[in-house]
Write a structure and sequence with these properties.
Blueprint lengths: L28 H17 L2 H12 L7 H18 L2 H7 L3 H19 L2 H8 L3 H18 L1 H24 L8 E3 L3 E3 L9 H29 L2 H16 L8 H6 L4 H18 L3 H13 L9 H17 L5
Antiparallel strand pairs: 1-2
Length: 327
Amino acid sequence: MTPIQCSRCGTELPPAALACPACTTLVYSGELKRLADEADAATRSGDLVRARDRWTAALQLLPTHSQQHAAVSARIVGLGRQVEAPSTESAKSTPTPGAWWRRGIAGFITAALVLGSKLKFLLLGLTKATTFVSMFAFFGVYWSIYGWPLALGLVLSIYIHEMGHVSMLRRLGIESGAPMFIPGVGALVMLRQHVTDPLTDAKIGLAGPMWGLGAAVAALGCYGATRAPIWFAIAQLTGFINLFNLIPVWQLDGSRGLHVLARGERWILVMAVLVALFFTEQRLLLIVAGVAVWRALQDEAGPGNAQVLATFVGLVFALALIARDVR
């Protein structure tokens, strides 16, 4: 039974609410923490079936389209793969302390190679006090729910996404603030000047998912090098979060990318999203396609840009493929 009022802000909660509509506080945060602790304890003891059951129970208490729901779904998928693997293979993958460190080092080397020349720029962003402090607070909140490995992966993937926006803004000579993390919401970059050109707006918007895709590929590279399931879960979660940002509505990146597209290009995007849905079966694409149809039917339309359309379509396919198992 849902509590009558939010424990944080006192807002009256609708029946069956899982999050406060005013402050986004999770209604069952206490129960979620208990389930997460039980799941982590079961994982440490090697009882993966119980761990998966505990995370499955937690999933029912999270809003369907929240980042928390995506993170727990990814973790359940990872545990499912381990449970279904042959016992001999499972024994081989059981990490010893030394092996864990070796795999961790190999993973970080792989990530560094994928990020390449962007690494210095990413480290530079951490010198901003507002970014570092808000990121640390964000990490602490999600550590208490998902454990530190997945929480760290979530924080870093969102940070890389936001730094993609910052990189494009710098390239275009547009002033902006540093990334700011908000638990339960994600992160954002505040512009210090208004952008009116639709092509410029599209470039800024899609830069985040492009860098986010790079982060997901880096995590997949780490998974290939280490075979540690946490990397695969991080890759899937990163893909899902960035795909969510491609929904062309409100201030999400997809809306900014759609801004420049002409009416015919918007219908091409709709068809491409439906094709991606057919091949990946990622149901989030139903929302992307539905909102894109609504936007295509509106009177307003952009001047058109084939490069932006191709980028948008490529991101949809790549991110949906990576996040195909997240439900």
